[in-house]
């Protein structure tokens, strides 16, 4: 009666059988201890040996034949009828065997006949208990499989989404870096240093903020004087963990689809506030009135749909995303309940 997902194996040895043997031995000893007061030890052992043999038969017949063929196939009426019929058939057989074993003891024989209905109820109850046990085990296995599948799906989705987080600015920066190396510019080593820091895997919020700062430094070099970039951090980012590159799509969006359409002066303002384990991230950028509003809303990085999907997977019920797309300013407000180290 030990479920498959709870069994232990060691070098090919199956402990499920051992556990079941131990279970039935304990049940046998308990039955003997309860019967010993009603008769002598030898008769108690004989009686409970008969009982345990019949219990073994009806339990395993139920678990390995009736439940798989009827209950699991949702043939509920046939299943209930089958366990009733099994109890009805097994009871007189057991009573007859006990009656023979107690020949020469008319008092016990009379008691067996008198309690025939009780024997039937006990047999039916044993079957019902084994059914309830199997239903619980099936539910636990189903929940385990469901959670395992859900975890695998989430991991697959995260890997898929993560694979799409390939910042567009990186390719532009590499092109600029190539051009600068051809010119033997003094800016080339600085760009290489910033890129090396950006490409490191990030998890601590402090690292994520360093990533943002490096990103903005590269954009300042690329954009020149036509863009004003402000980055403000309030609160202590230490000891907080965030998903890697969680803010990247919004950074990409601001520079690629907001400022790229502005010929004159533009701006990008970023504000990040930490209160306990709550993070408030606000980013806004200027945009031209001629630019279609929907274009900015759905473009950039891995796209707004995938951004929301990633947030839902990593921070279910622990984030709030607000987007304001006015004619001249595009802003994103993201609130996250982060994990502490």
Please explain how this structure is put together:
The structure is a single chain. The protein has 341 residues and is an alpha+beta fold. The protein folds into two domains: 4-162, no CATH class; 165-340, Histidine kinase-like ATPase, C-terminal domain (Heat Shock Protein 90, 2-Layer Sandwich). The protein contains eleven helices and nine strands. The strands form three sheets. Strands 3-5-6-8-7 form a five-stranded mixed beta sheet. A two-stranded antiparallel ribbon has the order 1-2. Strands 4-9 form a two-stranded antiparallel ribbon. α3 packs across α5, α6 (168-183) runs antiparallel to α7 and α7 runs antiparallel to α8 (205-223). It is rod-shaped. The chain starts with 8 loop residues before the first strand and ends with a strand.
Give the SSE layout.
Layout: E1 9-10, E2 13-14, H1 15-35, H2 41-71, H3 76-101, H4 106-114, H5 116-164, H6 168-183, H7 187-198, H8 205-223, E3 227-234, E4 240-241, H9 248-258, E5 266-275, E6 278-286, H10 293-298, H11 304-314, E7 319-325, E8 329-337, E9 339-340
Parallel strand pairs: 3-5
Antiparallel strand pairs: 1-2, 4-9, 5-6, 6-8, 7-8
Helix pairs in contact: 1-2, 2-3, 2-5, 3-5, 5-11, 6-7, 7-8
Shape: rod-shaped
- Amount of helix: 55-70%
Largest sheet: 5 strands, mixed
CATH architectural category of the largest domain: 2-Layer Sandwich
Individual helix count: 11
Question: What's the total number of strands?
Answer: 9
Distance between the termini: 42 Å
> What do we call the CATH homologous superfamily of the largest domain?
Histidine kinase-like ATPase, C-terminal domain
Write down the CATH class of the largest domain: Alpha Beta
SSE order, one letter for each helix or strand: EEHHHHHHHHEEHEEHHEEE
Strand proportion, as a percent range, falls in 5-15%
Secondary-structure content class:
alpha+beta
User: Would you identify the regions where 5 or more consecutive residues have pLDDT less than 50?
Assistant: 1-11, 294-302
Biggest sheet strand order reads 3-5-6-8-7
Radius of gyration: 36 Å
What is the residue-mean pLDDT, rounded to a whole number? 78
* Total number of distinct structural domains: 2
Q: Give the CATH topology of the largest domain.
A: Heat Shock Protein 90
């Amino acid at each position: 009666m030990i479920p498959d997902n709870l069994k232990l194996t060691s070098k090919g040895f199956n402990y499920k059988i051992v556990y079941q043997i131990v279970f039935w031995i304990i049940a046998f000893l308990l039955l003997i201890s309860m019967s010993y007061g009603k008769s002598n030890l030898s008769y108690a052992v004989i009686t409970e040996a008969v009982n345990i043999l019949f219990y073994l038969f009806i339990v395993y017949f139920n678990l390995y034949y009736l439940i798989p063929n009827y209950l699991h196939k949702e043939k509920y009426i046939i299943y209930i009828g089958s366990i009733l019929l099994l109890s009805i058939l097994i009871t007189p057989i057991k009573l007859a065997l006990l009656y023979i074993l107690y020949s020469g003891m008319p008092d016990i024989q009379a008691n067996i006949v008198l309690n025939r209905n009780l024997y039937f109820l006990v047999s039916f109850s044993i079957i019902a208990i084994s059914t309830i046990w199997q239903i619980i085990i099936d539910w636990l296995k189903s929940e385990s499989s469901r959670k395992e599948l859900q975890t695998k799906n989430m991991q697959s989705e995260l890997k898929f989404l993560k694979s799409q987080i390939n910042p567009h600015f990186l390719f532009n920066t590499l092109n600029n870096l190539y051009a600068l190396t051809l010119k033997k510019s003094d800016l080339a080593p600085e760009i290489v240093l910033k890129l090396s820091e950006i490409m490191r895997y990030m998890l601590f919020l402090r690292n994520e903020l360093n990533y943002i700062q490096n990103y903005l430094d590269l954009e300042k070099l690329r954009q020149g004087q036509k863009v004003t970039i402000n980055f403000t951090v309030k609160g202590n980012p230490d000891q907080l963990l965030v998903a890697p590159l969680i803010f990247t799509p919004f950074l990409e969006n601001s520079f690629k689809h907001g400022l790229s359409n502005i010929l004159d002066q533009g701006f990008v303002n970023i504000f990040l506030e930490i209160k306990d384990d709550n993070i408030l991230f606000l980013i806004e950028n200027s945009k031209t009135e001629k630019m279609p509003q929907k274009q900015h809303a759905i473009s950039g990085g891995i796209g707004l749909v995938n951004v929301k999907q990633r947030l839902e997977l990593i921070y279910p019920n622990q984030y709030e995303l607000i987007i304001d797309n006015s004619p001249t300013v595009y802003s994103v407000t993201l609130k996250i309940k982060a994990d502490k180290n």
